[in-house]
Structure formats: structure tokens, C-alpha cells
Amino acid sequence: REGSLFAALSRAVAYQQLSGKAAGTIHGRFLDLFPGREPDPELLVTMPVEQLRAVGLSQAKSLSIQDLARHAVDGSLPNPWQMARMTDEEITDRLCEVRGIGPWTAQMYLIFNLGRPDVMPATDLAIQKGVQNIYRMRALPKPEKVHLRTRHLAPYRSVASWYFWRASEL
């Protein structure tokens, strides 16, 4: 769907560093700003930051979502057909050009929206805890160690990440 990358990334920004309930409330108010509750980048680029702040988004998130909208409007966000021909790293690099979108957010998009099979979000604390529990490590592994310990799981590290997330709860 045409707006799905924009919608998914604007949702990801709204949810960053918040509990699910608080983020859901704020994101719901954000969606209420748009006809059909579908975020519209064209409307967002001209929307005052104060209007975004009024629905509960922080200043940083408001500016991030507006930058995302500018990227969507100017065509610098890849479309689904372009992404189909891009590597995970190329997609991550392109998404990280947007203010407030970092590698972790890009990796979550690769796993949950694009269904890419070989993504290991090694900076994710729950992944690190899961690797620590499964491999019975004394210390929480740094991202480099997570990559080393999980390289044998390629090309299915996205699937493995689900198990590490669950193992973080052990």
C-alpha cells in the first residue's frame, strides 16, 4: 500500500521509548489529525509542530515525523518496488537518513513490515538478555558479541530474534 512505509515509520517514532498503552493513546490522537486516520505526509509538512505537540508527541518526535513527511513528499523514501531490490543494509541506510530513525527502528521495519528473514537487532536489550540466557553468559553481551554468537543462525536470524526476545523473559 502506498502510505504503508510512512504510516509504519510514523507509528514507530510515536512508540519510541514509551509504554505500549501511553504510545497507543498518543498515536491514536495523532491518527485523529487525518481523514480516515491515515497519516498524510502532504498535510504533515505544513502542519505546525504545536499541533503535533498538542496530541502528546514530544518536540523531538514531532520534528522527526515532520522530517519523515518531507522525505516521503520529496520521494527520498524508497517505495515497495525499490525496497524489493535493496539489501537490508541499503534499506537501513536510507531509513536512517530520516531524523529520529536509527538502526533499531529500521531493523524492526525490516522484520515486522517487510518480513526480511535475516535481521539480528543486536542493540536491542531484550535480544542481548536472550542471548545471555540461551548461551549462559555471565555478562550481558555487547552488540558485536551478539553478532558473533548468532552468525551461525543466518539466513534465519529474524526467526531466531523471536526466540531471543522470549528467552529474555526466562
What kind of sheet is the major sheet?
A: none
Give the termini distance in whole angstroms.
Answer: 38 Å
SSE succession: HHHHHHHHHHH
Look at the structure and give the mean pLDDT: 94
Estimate what percentage of residues fall within beta strands: under 5%
Brief sketch in words of this structure:
The chain has 170 residues and is mainly α. The chain has eleven helices and no strands. The longest helix has 16 residues, at 59-74.
Q: How would you sum up this structure, described in words?
A:
The chain is 61% helix and 0% strand. By secondary structure, it is mostly helical. Helix 1 (4-15) runs antiparallel to helix 5, helix 7 crosses helix 8 (103-112) and helix 9 crosses helix 11 (157-167). It is globular and about 50 Å long.
